[in-house]
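Need tokens for this chain, all 93 residues.
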Amino acid sequence: MAGLVADKCSQCGAVRQPGAIFYLVHITLTCDFDGELMDMNSEEIRGKIEEEMQKASEKDEAELMDEVYQELYFYLCKSCRDRFVQKLRAQES
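Here are the structure tokens for all 93 residues:
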């Protein structure tokens, strides 16, 4: 979707006027791991792997992929962009 310009704001629906500036928000969500491994013996590890494999087998490929990686695109007008940035900055502190 990058490179394409939306005709309205993804948040408030304001129609983009020809030549007007809109803001593209591109969010990449990726699965992460903190590096901590549970304290389990080999039998418990095997059981946990089997449990996770069973859960995975019950989902389709798209569902599994969404749990690992997603890209989201939003076009925002100036006022929605300002609110979006303000909310993000408030969460930083």
